[in-house]
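Researcher: Re-running this chain for the archive, since the previous output was lost when a drive failed. Same request as before.
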Amino acid sequence: MIKIKKSAAILLSLILTVSLFASCKGKETRDVISYADTNYNFEQLVKDGTVPELKFKLGANVDELTAFYKQESTSSGSEFEFNTEEKDNISSFSYGTVTYYCNTDKKDAGISGIALFDTAYGFSSGFTTIDDAKEKIKKDYNIITPSDDDGFFIPGGLPEGSKAISIDQNNNNLKIYFVNDKFIAIFLSNGNFSK
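Model: Regenerated structure tokens:
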């Protein structure tokens, strides 16, 4: 009887260990395939107000976005909460590493700002260098020193010495932020956004 229990415990431990490694491997492979070798048309994405990793883009309906993320946050297995906040005439809608913004008095105009940490446009936080990004973007960008206002969405603000790549298309602006030459976040906005 003891041998059977011991064998069952060992077998169960082995199955759980294999399952753990298999699930981790699948996620890692997906990330590499999804983001590593993507060639984005940055001019078109900025013009369209789109971040490829996100469901909603600039101009998206605030009520639809809110309903979607409330549903996501209450679904089983969700690790993130959906939060909303209104402060200084800016409404924010946060889920995980993304925060959408709109001016409270212009909600009918839809989302006017998107901040995203972690992975954006195929850039990975802490891994992608500013040189990698310049090579991927190829043209029509400026390297800037961000102002204090630029980092309003980053807890504690941007550290001294930060840099950003800025891309303007039509009325939209994308800033890709770097600290110590490593990617940390993006902020995509349109002309309706004012801080």
